[in-house]
Amino acid sequence: MARREIQCVGNLHSFRVEVSGDDVYVHADPNVVKSRIRQPKLRSLSKGGHGVVIIGAGAGGGHAIEGLREAGYEGKITIIGQKEWPSIDRTKISKALITDPAKIMLRKNDFLEGELGVTLKLGKKADAIDFKSQVVKVGGEEVPYDKLIVATGGTPRTLPLPGASLSNIHVLRDIDDAVAITKGLPADEKGPKPNLVIVGSSFIGMELAVATAQKATVKVIGMEKAPFERILGVEVGNALRKVHESKGTKFFMEAGVDRFEAKPNDATKVGAVVLKSGEKIEADIVVLGVGVAPATEVLKASTTSGGDRIKFQQDGSVEVNEKLELVGVQNVYAIGDIATYPDPVSGELNRIEHWNVASNMGRCAAFNIANPSAGQRFDKVPVFWSAQGQQVRYANGSSLAKKFDGLFIDGSLVSPPFTTSHRKDDKLIPFFFGKDDMKFAAWYTKGDEVVALCTVGRDPMVSRASELFKLRKMPKASEIKSGKNIMDIKLE
Questions:
Q1: CA distance linking residue 475 with residue 489, whole number of Å
Q2: Does the chain have fewer CB atoms within 10 Å around its N or its C terminus?
Q3: Average per-residue pLDDT for the chain
Q4: Helix crossing, 203-212 with 229-245: angle to 10°?
Q5: First-last CA distance in the chain
Q6: CA gap 442, 236 in Å, rounded
Q7: What is the pLDDT of residues 397-451, one digit of tens each?
């Protein structure tokens, strides 16, 4: 069974099962069972030609390699990446401020080159693509391709405000960013705590707040009423805010940044963040968690075979079809943060900036390259988890999750008990929860349709929900409110 819905490499083994009465027999080689994971293999390099070139050695590019070899692709694979290392588990950067890429590499270079037959061009930038000649221009070199996967990811947004060029103002996307932030933190929890100001109250910034709470005095600035409001809503966002506050984090919500000011004794370093209200927040380190922009520079520098420029969406992304082929260009796929794709449920164009989506897109594009007649549609359900002092799980059934108009909460949002509420018919209905632990399932609805699920302490509900979303078997919101348990629904 392939691990298709989560970010990992390698596959679980699958074995023939036989049921006889009350007995279950599994037919398996004991040596195979001990190996635990079935790794992809390079069967041969029997195919000639230029093969597949992948621009971008992130999650999407790394999983595209895995997917190509798993699907039996026997051609050349070349990957071009700006960093000196191949794909890493980027989720651990914000969750734990990992600064050593060797600790979070998905694959080592020798495995990629020796076992999977990949040509690595790392530490290099793709400058442009000649779609007519089918070559990627890398410095003074031209790398030809038969099929191309553009997986260039996202670029962290910054704030064009006075003082933004002061030192100790960072973004958090890669190992280099984690290294820079860590330099401003004490080596252990016993040292003096610097003032760390995080601008942005969504997942990256809030994960960093958890990771640094013991080493810094953390302050979060957010434009919304509550952290995570756009995705999780005010009620869940405020419940998670209380978890952060219990660890010492201070919030400044419904606030905008006006400027950054230097330290009185050092005009080169940030010393304060000034809000539009005039309030001044002392800062030794500032981290901007204000989203990412599609990294499409290489596409902007390229032209189609007819000499036309690539067409971009309003947000700077590019449109792909249901098989993830770049619209208007032959033999090219675009995946991950740069790709706007047709949602299989709503039919709307959708784009999701998440490692899980990029990984699954890489595998889908790879399968379609290895099996051109199959025409696999990208239909994976976005699933993610986040360390917020509590383990948060989330699955969204379609692009309609961004437009939820109702929220039903089953369980306890907070500990210790306090009065909270859920939304019904556009009204907030108060509830008093008296349980000891935060444990809940938050159902996001549009009309009577369930469009997303967020849980804390209710595993494996999100895993089951993702399957039900995909199979179009998710119960109606009215059924959930009446007590229907999704764990009782068979996945057939």
A1: 9
A2: C
A3: 91
A4: 10
A5: 16
A6: 8
A7: 999 999 999 999 999 887 544 444 444 455 544 444 344 478 999 999 999 999 9
Cβ pair 119, 79 in contact under 8 A: yes
Instruction: Please give, one letter per residue, the 3-state secondary structure of the chain.
Output: CCCCCCCCCCEECCCEEEEECCEEEEECCHHHHHHCEECCCCCCCCCCCCCEEEECCCHHHHHHHHHHHHCCCCCCEEEEECCCCCCECCHHHHHHCCCCHHHCECCCHHHHHHHCCEEEEECCCCCEEECCCCEEEECCEEEECCEEEECCCEEECCCCCCCCCCECEEECCCHHHHHHHHCCCCCCCCCCCCEEEEECCCHHHHHHHHHHCCCCEEEEECCCCCCCHHHHHHHHHHHHHHHHHCCCCEEECCCCEEEEEEECCEEEEEEEEEECCCCEEECCEEEECCCEEECCHHHHCCECCCCCECCCCCCCCEEECCCCEECCCCCEEECHHHEEEECCCCCCEECCCCHHHHHHHHHHHHHHHHCCCCCCCCCCCCEEEEECCCEEEEEECCHHHHHCCEEEEEEECCCCCCEEEEEECCEEEEEECCCCCCEEEEEEEECCEEEEEEEECCCCHHHHHHHHHHHCCCCCHHHHHCCCCHHHCCCC
| Least confident window among 187-196, 291-300, 471-480 | 187-196
Evaluate if pTM is beyond 0.85.
yes
Are the beta carbons of 215 and 191 closer than 8 angstroms? yes
Q: Using alpha carbons, select from 383, 390, 395 the residue that is nearest to residue 456.
A: 390
